[in-house]
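Usage example:
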Amino acid sequence: NAGVTQTPKFRILKIGQSMTLQCAQDMNHNYMYWYRQDPGMGLKLIYYSVGAGITDKGEVPNGYNVSRSTTEDFPLRLELAAPSQTSVYFCASSYELHRATSTNEKLFFGSGTQLSVL
Amino acid sequence: GQQVMQIPQYQHVQEGEDFTTYCNSSTTLSNIQWYKQRPGGHPVFLIQLVKSGEVKKQKRLTFQFGEAKKNSSLHITATQTTDVGTYFCAGPRSNDYKLSFGAGTTVTVRA
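Running the assembly step on the lines above writes:
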């Protein structure tokens, strides 16, 4: 199993450009998430999905869009890149949602995408 | 809303020494998770604590969940260079169960 695969690893965008960050998992997890990580700020949830066709906003969704057409894939779209979106983006998946009290809700993270918007 | 706070933000440790990092929540948590992120890497799950007062050990790492389930700690004994990285705690918010991550404690080790 490859786990959670993210592409690309690095990207530089100009202000106003658009791009899609790809994320795929092969663990048959229903739950997938996109986080951004800024220095000293921890991980902030952008969007999440509880299954194919179902997505919902997290803490910082503005400027982003997602879709979930299959269980495996959960791409993140930036429509009009802004300097404030410079960050490291992590995709993650879990077997269960965070309501349970078992380790089945632990997150598996991808290797991340470092995005700079100039 | 619920926030998970971690202290200290940075921990510089002499190799061989012990240290502790703390995680505090403004609300009661059903459980708490700890992750480790190596420099340039991605967060990796370490452990989950569920019960009040629970203590779990992984080799030199000791994790504790407070009696009131509002705080947690990670204690590392005899720090090694392999312990370098950022340690995050995370707890599910009571209203929507989304994980709230602390800002992390970044650990550096002096040989």
